[in-house]
Write a structure and sequence with these properties.
6-stranded mixed β-sheet; 13% strand; Lipoprotein
Length: 281
């Protein structure tokens, strides 16, 4: 045997039995998996009731109709021309036909009333203002309440008209406008809608429109100057005026109506700075 080829070794003289056995592994007891503990937070009964009430309130508010806030006025003419005769404009019928629609269209809340009589500012005829959309319980039927109160407003307007008809004959339209102007909300930006049931045929002890020269622009301006100087200018700047029965006396006389209309346009829009609409005329 050479060094490069060593002789094969024989079996281990000690044998397998002679080798040390590895120490036996100790069985480690398995730890049970930790139990999940669910913690339930119990809300106090008072808090549960409060949250439920809040949810109910929110639902009620979401179904609540939009509240009305518009300030409005109603002026009724009880002069001789207010009758239902052929020559009159039938103020009672105009109220029945237009008032409810006006109050609903304009979303009127606080609504005041004024008469047109021989001397309107001094007239004893009056009715109390009305709140047509009052605060109420969350369960109230607001639309039904509004409708019922508009009917109360119609009744109040008729009561005022009946009183005005019993006064001395006369038609102080500007005085009626001055009287309703006292209820206009303060502030330059305050909104105010006024329904005026009248033919606008001014006829009081000091001024009769039918006797005035309204044929030219110059004569109308001169008449308007004297008229406002003697009767005062109603504080209705920025107000929206809705006439009903306007100029009905002249419905068969086109040229006279044009003069009549030009005069009141001068007074109401240019001098008083009100806005006149024809929605209910």
């Amino acid at each position: 045997m050479t060094a490069d080829n060593p002789a094969p070794q024989g079996p281990d003289p000690q044998g397998p039995a002679a080798r040390p056995r590895p120490a036996p592994r100790r069985e480690t007891a398995r730890r049970p998996a930790p139990r999940r503990v669910t913690v339930r937070r119990v809300l106090p009964a008072a808090l549960v009731l409060a949250l439920a009430a809040a949810g109910t309130a929110c639902d009620a508010m979401s179904n609540e109709p939009e509240r009305y806030s518009q300030a409005c006025g109603v002026v009724v003419d009880g002069s001789g021309s207010a009758v239902d005769a052929k020559t009159g404009f039938d103020a009672a019928a105009k109220l029945d036909a237009r008032l409810d629609t006006f109050l609903k269209d304009r979303k009127c809340r606080k609504t005041s009333f004024a008469p047109i009589t021989k001397v309107s500012m001094a007239s004893k005829c009056q009715v109390s203002p009305l709140d047509l959309d009052p605060d109420g319980s969350k369960t109230s039927d607001r639309d039904r309440t509004r409708k019922a109160l508009r009917e109360v407003a119609r009744s109040s307007a008729h009561k005022l008209l009946d009183c005005a008809k019993k006064q001395e004959p006369g038609s102080d339209v500007l005085g009626g406008l001055s009287r309703i102007a006292l209820t206009k909300p303060s502030g330059d930006d305050a909104s105010f809608d006024v329904l005026v049931v009248s033919d606008f045929d001014q006829g009081d002890p000091d001024f009769r429109l039918g006797r005035q020269d309204l044929s030219t622009d110059a004569s109308r301006q001169k008449t308007a100057d004297g008229f406002l100087k003697s009767h005062g200018k109603p504080e209705l700047s920025g107000a929206d005026i809705y006439p009903v029965g306007y100029g009905m006396k002249y419905h068969t006389d086109t040229s006279r109506y044009e003069q009549f209309n030009a005069f009141w346009t001068e007074v109401l829009e240019r001098r008083m700075k009100a806005h006149v609409h024809t929605d209910y005329r």
